[in-house]
């Protein structure tokens, strides 16, 4: 109950400056130094709606946020690179038919024999030193090589729309227990409708029969161009042949709406994604031509590998 007889202030402790500190929201009178305050104190004492204070706080927040994002990007990069390498290995295993759920990727991948291939000659260039760069099949970066001016050349006639072509690429051999060749896995890439599609083509030991084609990176439209990932479409590639006359003839493999030649060289284009299909046709025909892997495939067909 309030004491009705008490006058206001009566019987209450008298306020002293210590008990009643200056209002934080009120700036100190001009020219007056706030007790114990430096720049920070004066800044904190500035009203919250002060424009300069708002800008400084916003800039500070931006700086801190950008530092956090940069630190996260830098610290996560090794993990991202490791995952990208793992994803590529899974794709190489898948295109060669060696991947099932639960497969130990690192262990299964050891079955492959990687080589750096000189495209022009179809010869392996492992351990060679080109323009001061050691061609190590375990570390060679195909994508970086395609942009490296000393390891690549510009393309005038460029059906795969890749701009430059690396002179060297990494290929993966799979051997049978007796050491004979089982399959070769070759990197292929080229432009679809919206994006560059990166993938691998596995070819059987005859150097002419396709075992599989699979893309591990692209940005085509889900449900349309991205149907290149549909297992049913990928299955169409198995057993198709690159060239006529068991490899000795002309390059015949074609992705189209209607078969221009025999069924053995024909893959049905994706419906509703003719442009992506045309991109796949272009890139496959480019990489399997004399400017791509044909010199190497000739050696495979000759049993030299
Ligand atoms: C939003 C949108 C996304 C599309 N994405 C693709 C695509 O990824 N690949 C493709 O070939 N066509 C794509 N198309 C369709 C093409 O524009 C074109 O119509 C189609 O390639 C023709 O194929 P069709 O002759 O089999 O119908 C897209 C169309 C739209 C409107």
UniProtKB/TrEMBL annotation:
Domain of life: Bacteria
Transmembrane annotation, as ranges: 55-76
Membrane-protein topology: Single-pass membrane protein
Domain FMN-binding: 192-291
Localization per record: Cell membrane
Keyword Ion transport: yes
UniProt keyword Translocase present: yes
GO cellular component terms, A-Z: plasma membrane
Coiled-coil ranges from the UniProt annotation: none
Gene Ontology biological process: sodium ion transport
Sites bearing FMN phosphoryl threonine, chain numbering: 274
GO MF terms held by the record: FMN binding; oxidoreductase activity, acting on NAD(P)H, quinone or similar compound as acceptor
Entry keyword set: Cell inner membrane, Cell membrane, Flavoprotein, FMN, Ion transport, Membrane, NAD, Phosphoprotein, Sodium, Sodium transport, Translocase, Transmembrane, Transmembrane helix, Transport, Ubiquinone
Catalytic reactions on record: a ubiquinone + n Na(+)(in) + NADH + H(+) = a ubiquinol + n Na(+)(out) + NAD(+)
Major subcellular site: membrane
Subunit note: Composed of six subunits; NqrA, NqrB, NqrC, NqrD, NqrE and NqrF.
Family label: Belongs to the NqrC family.
Protein's job: NQR complex catalyzes the reduction of ubiquinone-1 to ubiquinol by two successive reactions, coupled with the transport of Na(+) ions from the cytoplasm to the periplasm. NqrA to NqrE are probably involved in the second step, the conversion of ubisemiquinone to ubiquinol.
Protein name stated in the entry: Na(+)-translocating NADH-quinone reductase subunit C
Taxon lineage: Bacteria, Pseudomonadati, Pseudomonadota, Alphaproteobacteria, Rhodobacterales
Gene from which the chain derives: nqrC
């Amino acid at each position: 109950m309030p004491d009705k007889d008490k006058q206001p202030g009566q019987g209450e402790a008298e306020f002293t400056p210590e008990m009643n500190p200056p209002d934080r929201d009120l700036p100190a009178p001009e020219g007056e130094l706030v007790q114990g305050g430096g720049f920070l104190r004066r800044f904190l004492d500035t009203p919250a709606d002060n424009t300069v204070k708002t800008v400084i706080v916003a800039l500070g927040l931006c700086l801190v946020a950008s530092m956090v994002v940069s630190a996260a990007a830098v610290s996560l990069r090794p993990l991202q690179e490791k995952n990208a390498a793992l994803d590529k290995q899974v794709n190489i295993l898948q295109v060669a038919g060696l991947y099932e759920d639960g497969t130990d990727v690192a262990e299964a991948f050891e079955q492959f024999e990687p080589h750096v291939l000189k495209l022009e000659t179809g010869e392996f260039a492992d351990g060679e030193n080109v323009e001061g760069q050691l061609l190590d099949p375990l570390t060679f970066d195909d994508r970086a090589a395609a942009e490296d001016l000393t390891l690549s050349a510009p393309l005038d006639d460029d059906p795969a729309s890749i701009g430059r072509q690396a002179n060297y690429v990494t290929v993966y051999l799979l051997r049978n227990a007796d050491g004979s060749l089982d399959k070769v896995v070759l990197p292929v890439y080229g432009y679809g409708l919206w994006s560059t599609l990166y993938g691998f083509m596995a070819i059987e030991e005859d150097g002419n029969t396709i075992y599989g084609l699979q893309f591990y990176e692209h940005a085509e439209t889900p449900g349309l161009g991205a149907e290149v990932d549909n297992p049913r479409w990928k299955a169409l590639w198995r057993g198709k042949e690159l060239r006529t006359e068991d490899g000795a003839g002309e390059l015949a493999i074609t992705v189209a709406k209607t078969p221009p030649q025999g069924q053995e060289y024909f893959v049905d284009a994706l419906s509703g994604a003719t442009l992506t299909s045309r991109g796949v046709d272009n890139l496959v025909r480019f990489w399997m031509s004399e400017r791509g892997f044909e010199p190497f495939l000739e050696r495979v067909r000759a049993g030299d590998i």
